[in-house]
Amino acid sequence: MKIRFWGTRGSIATPGQDTVKYGGNTSCVEMSDDDTLLIFDSGTGIRPLGMDLQKRFRGTKIHGHLFITHFHLDHIQGFPFFMPVYVPGNSFTIYGCEGAGKKLENIFVGQMSPEYFPVTLREMPAELKFIQLTTRPVTVNKWTVFPTYVNHPGLALGYRVEDGRHKVAFITDNEPFRYLLRQQGNLLPVYDDIEKGSIQLEREDHNLCDFLRGVDVLIHDAQYTTDEYKTKLSWGHSFYEFAIEMAVQAQAKQLVFFHHDPMRPDRQIDEFLVKYQQNLQERKIPLIVHAAWEGMTLDLP
Fold first, then answer.
1. Structural domains of the chain, ranges and CATH numbers in brackets
2. Residue 189: what pLDDT?
């Protein structure tokens, strides 16, 4: 299994000098081998992925599977610019949950209506099939994709992928349940455990840890620092320490910080990565931590 990151940024695409290293494209991750092509999210990162696929397949037909976590704009806005869907003979199956009472296909139809885009979904020559998910697993060739609901405004899914030898989880937009549940009361006690250097998980967080148990790679939302999170309760994202705690509790082998804040410059991500790597070494926790950057590839032999 090969994992390649095509878009790592959260909320909005952020090209510029401060985001050259980790990238400014929004959410898109490829997982593939010689027989299987899975794509997770169609943020702006799917545009360069599409260009690469056309070079890689060199005129042969492309058959892929696109799994959408949810329908916030930064996770779907690149789809109209995904060039393989304009090639006759290519085929893509698109998976996702129901969004705000709208069927999966209708959401894609809506974002490509004439008010927003000059080409409609029906005019794309590739064969497109839409499958609305619950939490039942999906089999693609010899791979199995397990969906689960995560804590994000509106309906949102996370995924665990198994190929028979490896397990990889993609949890791109997820907020701790504990702090969200307590935000209506006195806010000061909400952060007492963070200030003491410990993170307490709510029952729903533990349930998600069970879903992630023993993954080789956990790709997890790490948009905020703890101070930033204090002013953004219920926005649907995590802070670095929570992502680490989820990985530790789930006994993941590797953790990848993902969905970088659009205000986060490269130098700050560098600083945070070194900080948390050193902290884990001091605690003697054998967790490998990365910060996702565009073009980053993880090979699971």
1. 2-299 (3.60.15.10)
2. 46
